Amino acid sequence: MKLEKLKDKIPAELYETLVAENISELRPAQVKAIKAGLLENKNLLICTPTASGKTLIAEMAFVKSILNREGKCIYIVPLKALASEKYNEFRRKYDNKETGRQFFRVALSIGDFDKTDSYLDKYDLILTVPEKLDSLMRHHTPWLKEVKTVIIDEIHLLNDTDRGPTLEIIITMLKMLLKKVHIIGLSATIGNPKQLAEWLGAELVEDDWRPVKLEKGIYYDGKVEMFE
Hints:
The protein is an alpha/beta fold. The protein is built from seven helices and eleven strands.
């Protein structure tokens, strides 16, 4: 699908940003997500390979939500380092004083778990990790009621014995607190996607397209023998 076909369906600021990033055509998973209701606030579970375009699917969801004044967005990632990486990326695109592209405010919240980070009520997109969000919810942070969209990156970590229970609890609590929350789950490795989609109340979007062909082989003694 050509990007120009979405020009009237997504905020102008998002369209301009994608053009500036030299994106002219959407990848298969992105097209499937749109057809499944991404821009109509349908809950989606995106299960596609690495580098297939899952982040842009998330971006389309939260930018539309924020710029259409539907509500804030929480972007949950499993690691602080990844949260910082995403924060820098989204700041560059959407909250950048140097380029004048300040469409909304982006914040990073991964610090002291005993603080409520009340300053976040002034921000639109909040990057965080499950443990920090769990703390914010237990402190009854007021601005949480303003959240419309929740992105859960690496959602397959629900199966992790250490961190999975925390992630499961916060998803459950968010669904109870925010009756009309828009949830987007992202993963490349879900073992039971249909069951997870059903639990989330989400449409399952699957695709096997990847930008580089995946080949398998065995490395031994300085040589690589590829499988047929």
